[in-house]
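Schema walk-through. Below, the input block comes first and the output block second. Nothing else is stored per chain. Lengths vary across the set, and this one has 331 residues.
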Amino acid sequence: EDIDRLTEGIDVDEESSNYMLMLAYLGHQKGWNFFPKEMAPRFKGLYRYYHVRNSLGVPGLAKHIGILSDAGIPVMLIKGMAMRTYYAPNVPRIMSDMDILVPEEKFELAKFTLCAMGGKIVEESPHSMGIVNGHASVDLHRWMYKTHNEKGFDLWQRARKIDFNGVEAYVPSPEDMFVHLLDNQSRNIVVREGLHRRMKWLYDCRRVTLHPDGIDWNIVAKKIKDFGTEHRMRLMLQMFDQCFPHVVPEYVLDMAITDEKDYEKWLKRAYRAQKARIYHGKKLEEGKLLPRVFAREILRRAEYLYLEDELKRKDPNITYLKHVEDYYGVN
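--- output ---
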């Protein structure tokens, strides 16, 4: 009955790939006989495809990590790679690249080492750099948070050391991973994609809280406080609490409370940013291609609206925020 409700009226070719893959994993776990006969083969194929695709890059990434380790550079798997490797092992994911973090002071050496192996830089941003080498498409991060909020978080001291395909690597602690997911997906929801496209973050967060390692909510509370009680952290915690009540202790939720009037204004700004993005998306669907510069402007504007409250409070020397601030000529 639940499967019928979840699959009712969906167009396999048009539906969100993330949603389809979640259903495919459900079928793999619970049995394909619960799915409509005409849909089961498509879901089976989708599951196999992403399972194989996720596995293809692992040997190449392990080779990269091994060479970086030999050069004295520790490597931490973050985002989807940390989930697939440690917090939700072997659950297939849609990943365009594999995200790794190195200590900030080792970033330039890591970049040089990967490029010396034949890697080509395909994308650069203040917090990370995309490097492709064969099947391994790596997003090399100098910071885990785009706004560089990990300062003083002792990420590496709390990190879990793991064996990754025969080489030594790290993953964030449950506390760091939980806040990392909230922070990363909050931007995706507002700036990049609609809510229905990114709801899997809820299940990722829940998997982290259920991990046998356990989670120290006192550390999470401190991290949220250190974040500066940002509106987006409050939004994400409240959304998680709505879907999974009583998992996050009340004192942690209270730690994220921000000024009500400012929060209301921020929500309105975030809503306007989302409306602009949706409008652009509909125009594309209608075949009305907007000039690339205008399309980029919509995303940039959404980015600014989203980070506006932080721009007013953060250290102006933070590169990522300074970049957005300069783009709009904000003083």
